[in-house]
């Protein structure tokens, strides 16, 4: 609803900051941090005048990488033209020793060496993969200076710590259109991730065209699936970026959508319909009929031909076995064949399917559950259960990758993911040979609560922190440095095509209609989505539920709230600077007063009406914080009962409202607890 | 350069505002305003549950329009699924009487009728063009409410005032990639523009693949051209949106790029190189050789086959004739044939070329200059010289379209373009029959100072105001209503794929590097690019000059400065509200104090270093404004000499600094002049 013009004063919680001049301990503005770096003198200017020269091996992929590099450099600098200029200009030499494998292989040499000097850049690598990584490093190193854009002189020698650095996208629960996939691959390239794990079938949807079994997509996808041509395009697009594509077809559970077109595959009677709810469901493939394996043999034949990667993911998670137990033919089969329980029946199934995969020359990957006493040693375990579970697999001689700790759909802070090391296990000691079974890790983007619109802000920027964990040396682990660089990379990712920050602003504006969104942004900066699986308990969701609320618009982690907690902690331990005090007061005042402005508009839109209490609670918490701040500043004593009253008020504000956590409360609690 | 975390308080000049509840005079949030509208009772809910039903004529274009409509509705609301649901759901009926012409014709019936009621929408039109327009109207009418998204009940009967409502893009000076063209067509559809005029050749580049004369693009484009397949795709894309595509090949001047590959076409000796500077240049086609017409005959044959529209633009502007005068063979020819001057020679050329166009069954369009005493009546005149020039053509019996007044590259305010009516002429009185020769108008986006990155903020949102002038009744002319609706449309355009607002923010961040950009945004909100052709006098520009400065990042028109002027005017005439006074003080204080923060960072980046004086001047102007505001508030008298000193200080601040105008100065001048 349109009304009078106004303007308003907004607090922006800005991580890209500049209170003080260049700090001596400023880390390189890059993520993941390189393995080894030596600073030089001077800098290489980015002024549109340099020439890119290829030496050694060349191929069209490298030329495309150059074009993409120049396009992104243009976006970073606004400098448009890159004419092939005279030889006296500075040169950017790309030296590639040899081609890489026709189909990218796990463990190929991804190292590169980047020498930046005032008149010349030399990027060299054993094969194109290293060149691709080195170009991304260079892009991130571009900085403003009084003389213009430049990259400081330095020599970098870099290589990844782990060979498998992945991101999984669940295109089953919410279909993700091709532009989302391409945009994600662009972001992965920027942070040197090299495996795109494409979760392509779920209870809620079968997302690939099968020509052999067309009812899979015709009846199981609502029309939302990738054609085989589109799949091939994406594989090519990923290869251009040094990224392998690993398909996952989840079985025997999480497979309802298969059964809509092919009910005979299932263990129940059917008929089946595409599942619209979230959760673990009973339908499961029938492991006791030979027809199941005949179907899967042909299906795996078709899909292993479509996806060239050497690895093939068969899922295997969360099969509850209820359909098996309800089918007397299956229980009879189990008795006859001495299969003692559901786990054993699934192990039998996995063994059969694994042979079908092996027959096609591929290596099987599966979730934790596929690891059973008889599981062959060449099955790769993707662990969602934890580092210990992964270590157990490695101990046994199976290779594995870690996803536990990297579940980016759970809205945990980047620091939490960053602290998870694939090689650490509390309970299992591995020899270094056994450690080498652990190939890396994968961030997992499950999509119950994520749409094409919101997926960007769920993946980025936190996945860059996981990418660093998987690429950089183990010793690269400073949280403060990580967050400072993450802020810069978050901005850089916009140059490389990620739009999640502007999408988030657009969503907030949409919620409040034709009204200035400034006060809504202030509220948004103080809240976060609930963590882990709390959201599913706070509402009744299905495939059709719009994900257009505040909880969907805000990032999983509030920079503002984290900064406020840091300030509060410094105040509490007596290490605050005068600007910390001022900052805390400014923020708390803004949060306290924001409510009176915002309440006027919140009831006018269905999407903001639920925020009435959220805004009110923020104001209350901030008022308590201001009172505590005043007491601390004036060294006034606070009566124990008054403090207790405040703390219990705050405790009640910790509970989610409108599926949102007030992230200011913890900082305020610190301030109150610090009063005497 | 990364340094300490901070946050800052930013003024946002927000046009989407909500100080007061719904105003009685709130205009429909739509642009262009419909010709006729009657309000109903209740509203049609947008909740994902309605079904779109086609009646009457159907065609694939309508189905694609429906899919695009649903996608944009999803972006506007965040409501995802649109399953074909049960018949008890509300219905959205689209009734199309007949097909439109195979190739869209000028003057086809574009009318539609849109009836919105709580349980049903009926959109009907004589042909698909009206349906396309009606869908855009509906999208713009979607609003938030306490019950969710909805469109208020109403009946709209709508039709355009002018049949030719165009936007020209100059892809010659700066090549515009396909995604820019497509994005522009999306925006044109949203505001019901129906002609995309594609300026495809210039001194600086020849932008279409010719298979007959391949050296045109091979030597004349730096590799930046559209293939014929791409052109066909764009024509199809435009047709899907009810937009005709008219190509322009500028001749005989503005044609240097042709001569790089085909020097014999030219009147000079050559060799020719692609022009890198901006301006009017001497090279011109040789009108005296038959070979020129042979070439053009084959070329026009190829291009009229590629572009199906009935109209074909041959340019004809700004040929200075110097090459003709310098060539004795040409001057001799002129003498022999009684051609008295350059204008007559160009008229001869135009006449010959027009016959070649006519031979291919097309109608010739040209700029003002093609209108000469002998110009045939079926040549359409595009007037860049003014309304009088257009009226003269109409008087003579030539049809015409207006572009003078719609030059959006000149950075004029929307209100200025909005006030220009194609039918108004100060000097010529036309009969209504003569008036009917005036078919409409075209906004022109010349690209000397525009890149693919900045073109969005140059076109939008101001072009929506021009679109309204060309579509809506003449009586739709309230400036205040226009600006209020423009602010809403500007936001809506983001839902329809325009990214110019976030691009502008990205450019500001880029300028200042790894430092919080809040203070830079404050400065940006107070400045505008210089108007008309002032920029070319303020620097030395060519094709390679980066367009990444503040002048390129800020929109042509500052909402904030305009609002401040409005407030200052109300204060000056004694009609200010208390909130006006408070607002003025808040703004002026912010502008005054911003400089002290900003000066710390400006020297650190080459792109912000030039803003040192701009920021300082803004602070000075604001300080003068605050002083005047204080005098007015306290009814203090100001000595004539003090006031004169302030006014002359302000006068000196009117001059551009760093190619930027301080747009706060006029409002401050108003305040100072109002003091006693």
Automatic annotation (TrEMBL), chains A, B:
Keywords attached to this entry: Glycosidase, Hydrolase
Protein name (Swiss-Prot/TrEMBL): Hexosaminidase
EC number of this enzyme: 3.2.1.52
Presence of the UniProt keyword Hydrolase in the record: yes
The keyword Hydrolase is annotated on this UniProt entry: yes
């Amino acid at each position: 609803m349109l009304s009078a013009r106004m303007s308003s004063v907004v607090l922006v919680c800005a991580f890209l900051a500049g209170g003080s001049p260049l700090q001596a301990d400023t880390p390189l503005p890059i993520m993941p941090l390189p393995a080894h770096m030596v600073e030089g003198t001077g800098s290489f200017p980015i002024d549109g005048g340099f020439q890119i020269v290829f030496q050694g091996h060349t191929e069209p992929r490298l030329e495309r990488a150059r074009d993409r590099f120049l396009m992104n450099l243009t976006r970073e600098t606004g400098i448009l033209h890159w004419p092939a200029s005279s030889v006296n200009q500075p040169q950017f030499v790309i030296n590639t020793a040899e081609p890489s494998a026709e189909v990218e292989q796990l463990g190929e040499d991804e190292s590169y060496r980047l020498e930046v000097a005032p008149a010349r850049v030399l990027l060299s690598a054993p094969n194109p993969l290293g060149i691709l990584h080195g170009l991304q490093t260079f892009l991130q190193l571009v900085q403003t200076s009084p003389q213009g854009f430049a990259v400081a002189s330095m020599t970098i020698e870099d290589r990844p710590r782990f060979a498998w650095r992945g991101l999984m996208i669940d295109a089953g629960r919410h279909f993700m259109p091709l532009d989302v996939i391409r945009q994600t691959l662009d972001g992965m390239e920027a942070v040197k991730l090299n495996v795109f794990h494409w979760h392509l079938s779920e209870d809620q949807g079968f997302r690939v065209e099968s020509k052999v079994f067309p009812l899979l997509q015709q009846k199981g996808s609502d029309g939302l699936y990738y054609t085989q041509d589109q799949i091939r395009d994406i594989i090519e697009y990923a290869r251009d970026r040094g990224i392998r594509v690993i398909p996952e077809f989840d079985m025997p559970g999480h497979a309802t959508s298969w059964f809509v077109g092919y009910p005979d595959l299932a263990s129940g009677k059917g008929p089946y319909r595409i599942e619209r709810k979230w959760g673990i469901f009973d339908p499961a493939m029938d492991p006791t009929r030979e027809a199941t394996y005949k179907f899967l043999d042909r299906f795996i034949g078709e899909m292993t031909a479509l996806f060239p990667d050497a690895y093939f993911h068969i899922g295997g998670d969360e099969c509850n076995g209820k359909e098996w137990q309800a089918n007397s033919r299956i229980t009879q089969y189990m008795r006859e064949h001495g299969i003692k329980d559901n786990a054993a029946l699934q192990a039998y199934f996995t063994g059969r399917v694994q042979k079908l995969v092996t027959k096609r020359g591929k290596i099987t990957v599966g979730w934790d559950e596929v690891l059973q006493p008889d599981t062959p040693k060449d099955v790769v375990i993707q662990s969602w259960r934890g580092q210990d579970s992964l270590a157990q697999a490695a101990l046994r001689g199976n290779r594995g990758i870690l996803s536990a700790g990297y579940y980016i759909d759970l809205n945990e802070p980047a620091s939490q993911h960053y602290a998870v090391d694939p090689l650490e296990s509390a309970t299992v000691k591995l020899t270094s040979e056994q450690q080498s079974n652990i190939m890396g890790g994968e961030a997992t983007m499950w999509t119950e609560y994520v749409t094409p619109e919101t997926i960007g802000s769920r993946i980025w920027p936190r996945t860059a922190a996981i990418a660093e964990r998987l690429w950089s040396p183990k010793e690269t682990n400073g949280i403060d440095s990580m967050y400072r660089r993450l802020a810069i990379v978050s901005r850089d990712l916009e140059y490389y095509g990620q739009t999640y920050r502007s999408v988030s602003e657009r969503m907030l504006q949409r919620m409040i209609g034709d009204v200035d969104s400034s006060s809504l942004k202030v509220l948004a900066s103080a809240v976060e989505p609930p963590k882990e699986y709390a959201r599913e308990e706070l509402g009744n969701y299905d495939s059709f539920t719009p994900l257009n609320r505040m909880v969907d618009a805000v990032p999983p982690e509030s920079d503002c709230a984290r900064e406020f907690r840091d300030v509060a902690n410094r105040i509490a331990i007596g290490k605050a600077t005068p600007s910390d005090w001022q900052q805390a007061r400014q923020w708390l005042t803004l949060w306290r007063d924001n409510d009176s402005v915002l309440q006027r508009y919140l009831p006018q839109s269905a999407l903001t009406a639920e925020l009435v209490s959220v805004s009110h609670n923020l104001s209350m918490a901030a008022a308590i914080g201001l009172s505590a701040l005043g007491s601390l500043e004036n060294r006034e004593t606070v009566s124990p009962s008054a403090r207790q009253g405040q703390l219990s008020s705050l405790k009640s504000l910790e509970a989610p409202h409108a599926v949102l956590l007030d992230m200011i409360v913890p900082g305020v609690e610190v301030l109150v607890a610090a009063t005497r």
